């Protein structure tokens, strides 16, 4: 691939990128509504405003590629093709949930789609992702592993160990830092020694510095294709920092009042869906096509919501299942 | 007497000690400007400022390492580990460094530090944010471990922990943060290593910790009222040092021991107490020792699943009815 | 039957499984070209080469994380954590990730992996390289835990662990590495979750693990010969799953339980077994349950100090003489 | 200080540097002899060949500055002024040992001399050192903390966390990586993504890259003075990588056979004591002066050895002391 010129993207790819961003946005918004109705318990971390990244990778990845993500993982899981009712059902603690209600919002997983789990301890999934990439390399499967995490994650030890490990074994893994400027309530800049918490550290692992506009699905898609291809052909890992912003608070409990006035508004101007819709119109795609996509996405979310709402609570007997591979939880004979 | 919530009692305890001693400092993630993710440290940043209240990066090893280094050189740090589950990412600093430094150096290093952390289930957070891990700490020689059940104990035990010259882990049960209770006005300093007898009975002695104390009391009430079974309830409060004097005396009186533990079964504090009782007052026992614990599984997240996993009042009533006569 | 050392049995067990299954891989620090710091993996690098036997950086989280990621995608990794004390630096991966993945995903993720580690005291290495931490693992739902005492068990249990579809922690007692014993020729695959009765007696049942099994046997010999006290000795071998059937049956027969534990006292596996016995066969007991453990302190390093800290044959003899009649 | 010109070192400093290197060398050699006589049990990690680093910092530091080091910490502890009989006694498990026999070779500590401990879990002491520096900053004591560790330590998570932490709080701490090319038996280059495991990562924490010849006591001393001064005056931390080599194996059990033929010989040519003796002679210091220093150092080691040998084993009753500040080990009432 000639990486000197920007890759030309066809209409089909572009429509797919829009469609997927819509799905992620509408489903996440629905999750928010369901909180307000108290149908979702526990906590929940939304990706509103950050959808371009998950969507671009979702479109760029091969179906058998592997995704690892965090508690803020609804979008990344959906982007691999997990069902909306599976996701919403899990958030609502229903039987139809991806994890039968056992995992909850922070642990969405759909192994059948290559969504290898959402991990809620900061940093832990980076070495796990490296391990999945090692396995792909060992088995010669050609799979690439993509591992998403936040800016705050770059200051924990596991980040460092995983990056070095992936490089020395030349593993087919892409580490994607979604820099949304904040950890929970604390700005990343106030606790990090460098400006770009991921990219400015790439050199420490012999990797190149890559910073991408994370609100521009095309930019993320081009970068994704380039490094997925490189990793797939044995060129080893990459560390990509995507600049973005979350529209809502860190989690359900957070109104986000620590953000300086005007900051959110400026970022809403750069809303990835807004940007992308305008771009498609500029490219001559007729508005009706977009309206159709939007309506179709909303129908899917509505249908999934109904399915999930209709699904019963998991049976209490499920508690005693699936610690072990034999399906049991027995620790004694 | 003021009525405070458990979470307000946390801030009150820390504030009391920070006012008294300039060398008390407090560090952790989002504890300062934001007042903590559980809002248990609201107001401290405003009162004590950024020199003494320090927001940190997501670097738990650095947080506890820094607390250790500061403690051995004259400060009295309080470090927050946001959820007790995250102790796993800095367990080396707790178990291998902080707990062992004094003994390994034959007393050259003393570590007056406190680690506070939010422990336990009930919030639908799933298996990585809901564990009761006080037993991890109890199993490590060299750290003291407390787990208060009431706002007054929270304030008093945090104060005692700060004044103690040794490292103390304070497990705050996150399901109790909204719980309200009377807290005496003025300076309050409790004592580590003291259990409390909250109710006297004749038929069995229930020993419980943190949230389970409340369930034990509720169950004891029902057992007495509806089934004529009269229970002593002991709130352990402090796992290390362990108040075996009180526990053994109370078990000996009723002849029966029931532990109620939020932790998964294996190697819980209840096992330790059971083994002490079965050794030292075996001849006072009138029947089997019962442990009521969360089953030995990770915690599920959906409402009905979580509620049916940790010991409920109903389960305690049922098991005691079945097993104590 | 060949006579192998405990350390040779490690390599033999791993080699047997690597020959059988191409998906078994092995990673850790200095395990390959150097044959391991305890020389327990000598010859594997030569036989299986650098693709399957991988020396790693000093990155324990990466080692276990990599094992986990590989296990969920088709490989059967064996990971070495050089000293069991170092499990503390990667405890999150063990306790929060590996142990919980299957349950949290309701069975979507299965983790056929093995973690081997050198456990225990006796080498004058001091408090950070001598701990017996098998109880840390036992307390975590979702991992299986074995701790062999004899070379044949080492080989057979490592093989069983590799074939098991779930994560298994194998604690190799480092003081036993030079110990020699008969190991059957040919393929050897043991079974997880089975205790072994090594000696039958009438007066009490000693339950022990790893090095303490050898001390229990030696003590039982002396007690029988010199003091007319006849002891059953049960080698627990597997903490999870726990063979309560064998243990309860053997304790019921003699009416007395003595556990011998190398771990510091609080929350040891012996406490768990004591609590099970005191619940389920209380009426079969003829006297107090005795636990003989290392005191609840970090381990000192000088010869005389270390030798007088972990339970010795003399101490076991003395305590049983005093307490069992 | 003008850092553009090399600092001129006076004779007194130079003789002090030589004297201290001799003490470290002779005492460490004695430790080796005592192993062979089976008077030292357990393991032991010698600094033979690496003495210039500990000595240079020892001379450059203020008496109230603080040192943190590893299991390979005999030299660093002695360099702060800990007594030889205390060190040898501890290695031999005697009552006169610095830790009364409780810690052993890997945990040498002498708080009265600012030697704040030897830590045997890779990486753990880096954040602890940062904490001591925080305390000095908070108390305004002007103390600087120096933290020594090996090349292999740069790949563990705690390294990363501590470096970022020290920089964002601008702590008075110097991290000194002694790159002796090997971890235990594995070359650092085979498991690290960059050539200089510490210095090539300094940029990831906004620090400058510093590589020093660790076998040249003057070079290390000059660097030490420069960054100690900077840290003391509020300029924040530094990360210094000193290139060196250990003459013996990793620990007592290791004959070091993984090293390529000739490598040791080349490094023996660059033995810090040899280099330094030649330099002093070249500077016109008469050989008799050096001979006297050498004899004096040997006398000290001999005397310490006798004292340690004469010291009894610690009393068994010591086992039950000093878990807690009240001197007890009680976990119950
Ligand atoms: C080891 C650990 N420490 C702390 C937390 C609590 N926590 C959850 S999310 C979060 C902020 C993470 O920030 P970032 O990595 O930027 O991701 P974002 O939430 O912005 O997507 C924190 C501190 C945790 N889950 N794990
Ligand atoms: C967390 C941890 N992992 C592994 C070890 C075992 N270990 C002790 S020393 C060592 C090598 C350290 O290499 P380096 O940092 O270069 O220091 P050097 O020994 O060369 O001075 C290893 C792997 C340990 N002590 N701690
Ligand atoms: Mg963020
Ligand atoms: Mg080295």
Helix segment count of chain B?
Answer: 12
What small ligands are held by the chains? thiamine diphosphate, magnesium ion
Radius of gyration computed on alpha carbons of chain A: 20 Å
Largest interface, C-beta closer than 8 angstroms, per-chain residues: B-C, 52 and 52 residues
CATH topology of the largest domain in chain B: Rossmann fold
Tell me the helix content of chain B. 25-40%
Number of helices in the DSSP assignment of chain A: 10
Low-pLDDT residue intervals, each spanning 5 or more residues of chain B? none
Could you please describe the fold and organization of this structure?
- The complex is a heterotetramer, with 2 copies of chain A (333 residues) and 2 copies of chain B (325 residues).
- Chain A has 333 residues and is α/β, with parallel strands linked by helices.
- Chain A has one domain (12-66, 118-302): Rossmann fold, CATH 3.40.50.
- Helices cover 41% and strands 10% of the residues of chain A.
- Chain A has 10 helices and 6 strands, in the order ααβααβαβαββαβααα.
- Chain A has helices at 11-36, 51-60, 74-79, 84-91, 125-139, 157-168, 217-232, 263-269, 272-282, 287-310; strands spanning 66-70, 115-119, 145-150, 173-179, 211-213, 238-243.
- In chain A, helix 6 links the parallel strand 3 and strand 4.
- In chain A, helix 1 (11-36) crosses helix 2.
- The model of chain A has no long low-confidence stretch (mean pLDDT 96).
- Chain B is an alpha/beta fold.
- Chain B has 2 domains: 2-183, Rossmann fold, CATH 3.40.50; 196-324, 3-Layer(aba) Sandwich (Rossmann fold).
- Chain B has helices at 6-20, 44-52, 60-71, 91-98, 101-104, 134-138, 151-163, 211-227, 244-254, 269-280, 303-307, 313-323, and strands at residues 2-5, 24-28, 53-55, 76-83, 114-119, 144-146, 168-173, 180-183, 196-199, 204-208, 231-235, 238-240, 257-264, 290-294.
- In chain B, helix 8 links the parallel strand 10 and strand 11 (231-235).
- In chain B, helix 9 (244-254) packs across helix 10.
- The longest helix of chain B has 17 residues, at 211-227.
- Chain B is globular, with a radius of gyration of 19 Å.
- The chains are: A alpha/beta (333), B alpha/beta (325).
- The structure holds thiamine diphosphate (2 copies) and magnesium ion (MG) (2 copies).
- One thiamine diphosphate (TPP) sits between chains A (72, 120-122, 149-153, 180, 182-184, 250) and B (29, 58, 60, 82, 86, 89).
- The site of one magnesium ion has 6 residues of chain D, from loops.
